[in-house]
Inverse folding.
């Protein structure tokens, strides 16, 4: 079912934007001083919206759960001090009411709320007839329809300044990311709703600061409309998400390092597809190299085991069996015999080298 969203393009949000929408600020508002000093630190860097979490029901109870309503005033004051509007996460109609009462300019719906249509509908009902921009984070599970459903519920309530925030998806598997990006999902969202502003939240995708620059640049390459980045005056002592927050100075350096990309074709849709497919190829190449490394590691162990009883490294029968079975498997995947034969000759040579190396070292 394809329903169109009635939304305002980012250019019509009355924001002083020259290119990307930049949202920065602490994961959580912790104290008046912390949010004010963080804002002041951001003053000389490009920021259009100051963010801050007020209600923070964490994954497990017993930790800091957010400063609560009093933090709204602190955030608003901090925003005023540097002359930028402020954004807060809401999860219930009470949160919406408190935000409106305190002049909060933007709100966003968190990943843990987007998954729940009951909550999203309650928020949409609370926002009926109110002209406030709403940003919707992707649900924690990789479900595009649920994300679209949340956007539709808000749109049906009359919210036209709508944006989507891509913050990655939960995965049971341990990965380099806190939340795996699954770039294909936000890109499909953008394909279906080309005017919907798409913002990347590299902080929650990465979970640490190491990959922040790379993920932010990926978002630029994929022509995202903006970034939301967690910035804390002193990340080491942050009460939530300490590992992924950066200082205002680091934020300045990160933003300066980003290279804006122009589509190489006038067709943005085509450009995104090309970039996305290239990224998929990069990912697969990374896996190929990872697996080759793993294969050679096994070879080294095999070399050591063979050495225990002076067994020859090269076993002709085993080698012919490998070539035969790999060629058969390759043909089933549309790979030519010639290609598999050549690749396996190289792999075998490298494998023998590793076995011998391991035997010399042992
Ligand atoms: C946040 O922005 O601090 C937050 C809780 O994000 P998410 O909903 O993406 O987990
Ligand atoms: Mn956070």
């Amino acid at each position: 079912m394809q329903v169109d969203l009635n939304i305002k393009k980012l250019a019509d949000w009355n924001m002083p934007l020259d290119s990307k929408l930049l949202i920065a600020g602490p994961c959580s508002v912790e104290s008046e001083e912390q949010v004010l000093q963080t804002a002041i630190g951001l003053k000389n860097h490009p920021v259009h919206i100051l963010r801050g979490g007020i209600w923070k029901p964490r994954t497990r109870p017993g930790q800091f759960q957010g400063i609560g309503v009093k933090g709204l005033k602190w955030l608003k004051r901090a925003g005023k001090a540097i002359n930028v509007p402020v954004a807060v996460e809401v999860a219930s109609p009470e949160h919406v009411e408190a935000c409106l009462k305190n002049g909060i300019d933007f709100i966003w719906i968190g990943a843990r709320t987007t998954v729940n249509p009951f909550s999203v509908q309650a928020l949409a009902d609370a926002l009926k007839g109110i002209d406030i921009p709403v940003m919707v984070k992707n649900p924690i599970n990789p479900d595009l329809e649920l994300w679209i459903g949340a956007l539709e519920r808000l749109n049906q309530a009359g919210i036209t300044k709508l944006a989507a925030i891509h913050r990655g998806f939960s995965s049971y598997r341990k990965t380099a990311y806190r939340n795996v990006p699954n770039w294909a999902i936000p890109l499909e969202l953008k394909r279906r709703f080309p005017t919907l502003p798409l913002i990347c939240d590299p902080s929650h995708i990465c979970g640490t600061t190491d990959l922040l620059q790379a993920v932010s640049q990926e978002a630029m390459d994929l022509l995202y409309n903006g970034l939301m980045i967690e910035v804390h005056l002193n990340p080491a002592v942050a009460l939530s998400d300490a590992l992924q927050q950066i200082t205002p100075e680091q934020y300045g350096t990160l933003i300066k390092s980003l290279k804006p990309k122009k589509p190489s074709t006038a067709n943005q849709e085509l450009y995104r597809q090309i970039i996305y497919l290239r990224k998929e190829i990069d990912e697969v190449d990374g896996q190929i190299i990872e697996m080759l490394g793993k294969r050679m590691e096994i070879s080294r162990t095999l070399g050591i085991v063979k050495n225990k009883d002076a067994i020859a490294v090269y076993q002709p029968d085993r080698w012919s069996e490998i070539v035969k079975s790999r060629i058969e498997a390759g043909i089933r995947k549309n790979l030519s015999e010639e290609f598999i034969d050549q690749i396996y000759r190289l792999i075998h040579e490298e494998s023998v080298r590793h076995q011998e190396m391991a035997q010399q070292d042992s």
Remarks:
- Residues 84 and 250 are 20 Å apart (CA to CA).
- The first helix runs from residue 32 to 42.
- The mean pLDDT is 94.
